[in-house]
Design brief:
This protein has 172 residues and is α+β, with helices and mostly antiparallel strands. It contains three helices and seven strands. The radius of gyration is 16 Å and the shape is globular. It binds nickel (II) ion.
Length: 172
Amino acid sequence: MTAPKILPILRYPDPRLHTVAKPVGAIDQRIRSLIDDMLLTMYDANGIGLAATQVNVHERLVIIDVSEERDAPLVLINPEITWASPEKQKAEEGCLSVPEIYDGVERSVAVKVTALDANGTTQQIEAEGLLAVCIQHELDHLLGKVFVEYLSPLKRNRIKTKLAKVARDDKR
Ligand code: NI
């Protein structure tokens, strides 16, 4: 077995972020290694969630950890939202693929999700608050959707300009 490694994270507006993910087939060694790599990548970047899409793997897998101690990873394989509350709330979001940008997005305040865990066991999750927001944000990634697409075209263009500058500064 190889040690987990930090994976490069795609940055908006990389067109690969708009790929629609396919379901995970077998939860084999390849998927288990990918989960380990994604966990290391998310914790290293101080994120609370990461979708496989963001590391250029287009399969339905996301990891989340909204705990204070950063020691309660949630692995969601082939997740589906089975219920979303009609009640919605706007909260500030960020994304590892959109560095340094934070803005308000309206989401359901509570959701129910069915997914497989890393052992292939079906789990039912009822989430509210930050976890509910994070689940909706990460599942959007699997559909090729980045949170800035909820913002106005004007804001989105400003973000593209700013990120192009960030990318240029990184190369220096
Ligand atoms: Ni994101």
